[in-house]
Amino acid sequence: MLEFRISLQSGFGLYTMNISYNNLTGTIPNFALRLAGYPSIYLAANQFEGSIPLFLRRAVSLDLSNNKFSDVTSFVCANDTGEGLSRLDISNNYLSSQIPDCWENFKSLAYIDVSNNNFSGQVPTSMGSVLELRVLILRNNSLMGELPFSMKHCKNLVMLDAGENKLSGIIPSWIGSSLQQLQMLSLRKNHFFGSIPLSLCFLNGIRFLDLSVNQLWGPIPKCFINFTAMTTQERFLTDSHHHSYIVNHTIIRHMYNYDIIALLMWKGVEHIFENDKLLLKGIDLSSNQLSEDIPTELGNLVELVALNLSRNNLTGIIPSEIGRLVSLEFLDLSRNHLFGSIPSSLAKIDRLSMLDVSHNNLSGMIPIGTQLQSFNATSYEENQDLCGLPLEKLCFVKEPHQESVVKTQDENDDFLQTFFMSMGLGFFVGFWGIFGTILFNRSCRHAYFRFLNNITEKVMSRMNLNPVPFMILIETVLLFITMLLLAGGVGGEVKCAERERQALLDFKAAMVDDYGMLSSWKGRDCCHWNGVRCRNLTAHVISLDLHGDSIGNEYFYFERFLRGKIPSLRYLNLSFNGFEDYHVPEFFGNLTSLRYLDLSYCYFDGRIPSIDLSSNHLSGDIPSELENLVELVSLNLSRNNLTGKIPSGIGRLLSLESLDLSRNHLFGSIPSSLAQISFLSVLDLSHNNLSGQIPTGTQLQSFNASSYEENQNLCGLPLENMCPKEEPRQESLVKTQDENDGFIQAFFASMGLGFFVGFWGIFGTILFNSSWRHAYFRFLNNITEKVMSRWQWW
Q1: Do 109 and 158 belong together in one domain?
Q2: Residue limits of the Leucine-rich repeat-containing N-terminal plant-type domain (predicted)?
Q3: Same domain assignment for residues 611 and 562
């Protein structure tokens, strides 16, 4: 090791100083007098320690990476301006605590790398004032919280790497809407959650997108087709791994290179790839909770070199369009729920050097192709019905190609559609050709019933059976068919109700649809619009899915144009919309048919008046997050299949006036914190499996015993079942129970006897007495003819 010493007597000026990779130790001496103008200083890969000297702020490019510096606050927050500094690299040091929040003086700073330190706390808000910033690397620290909103002003950002931290919240929509120059975005290995914002589709120039190892859910956006940098080939490609940016300064003009390092997950292990084109053309969404199908639109990203969708909950088949990705070298779809066969088009990708489709539900034969047979068998393992080389399980019957399967499926669909249309038309003509004539022609009707009577009597007499049950069966079948026809007919497609279609179009016309989410809302049949579902029989709209930045702060249009015009709405999803500074709209309470409402991540303000999720089939535990809704007034989760314990912190809901958790499968004791809710006036915990003593508190003992009944091991006032330390009243309890049991048994026995006598007293007489039967049917015919003649239906 060498200690760094430098003479200050010489008068010549330094424009560039590079003493990197020398293993120098100690602190940096003050050689400010030897600096000329705005020099470039490279001190990387030594063992300098302590604080970073202030005079280095005069540099235009400063590389202090891979040293032992422990303090950067005094350097960043000095009073003198750092207007000359354009590049700062302090990565791989011993820096800790928070990143200093005083970056506003660095007007020319275009490159900041603070990666591989031990910074904690939040990303400084003042970084959003560095308007010339092109590259920001925060990777591998312990940064927490959300990315600051102020960073939306850094519109020149080309590279943003905030991976391997502890950042949380939803991925900000302003990344896509404001940072449209981004070419590389990495948020990997953080705690981001929610769906992938559709605004990312504005990043037309994105070359590498890494959102892996987070907690993202929902579908993969189809609008990734807008990543035009992945759909077209650059006209000029170099062999360099470096990418340049130019910094214009009032005194000197600089061009600097920077590296883009891509870390990709392969079989759960991180790998750095050296192919520079790979670094620039990749998508990694692995290790999340993404669901639904793989979008076929990904097949248009023909310049894509790496695609990793592994370790998610994706379903459906592998799209045959994946074979159009002729530049693909890395494909990982493992550990999902994909089914169907491997598309034969995959064998056409000559450059494919890494493939993993293991741990899915794939079936059929692995397509024959040099590439696909060259991979290890582990690339296909844990697909029970998959066969063919390189697996040991060989196929006995050649499986059809995916294209022929799709073609056959289309032909089958066309045949079935034609078949059912023809059957429906034939049924309509045949049924109404006969039934209509009988209905409107009295002579034909009488002749028809005489004919039926004659046929029935002949058949039944030959079979020695009573014709009455047979006639009742025929009439029942005809009645059932008539009800089916009246309920919706046979065959045919429903069109949405015109009034509801027009209401949706009015809503669309009033919206500013920046992301084109409502672009499919056109044409006559709204039941096939994106996000809209209708009931098959009535054609009424029952579901609206408008999640994900589609409405913004214009939700009042929803109330204005849709309130009262979609009466059958049962499902409404408005999640991930920005409703800042608005209260939860009260008109949601007027949607009387609503069964599902999702307002998550909408940033509403104000109180939550009530939550009613009763009489559903909800399961699992009551989420402890409900304890944070401290302004909640009413909570009803009754008549579900909830299990687990009542959250111990439920007593934090001090505004609660009504709580109903009855008729679930909750167990454990009633939390004592419940006694702290002084406003509670309605409580029902009955019909669960609660146990232990009811907590002592004025409120809890004031409720009726019915609020706690049918919890076998629950004891204490107001129940008669006293806890062991109290005086029991077992006799009265047993007596009351016996009385209740006797009453119930007598009630059902009497009801059954009454039904038997009443039913067979009438039906049995008609069935076995021909004179009564004929009189009964004559009476029905007379009544029917009188009513029909009065209304002139015959």
Answers
A1: yes
A2: 499-534
A3: no
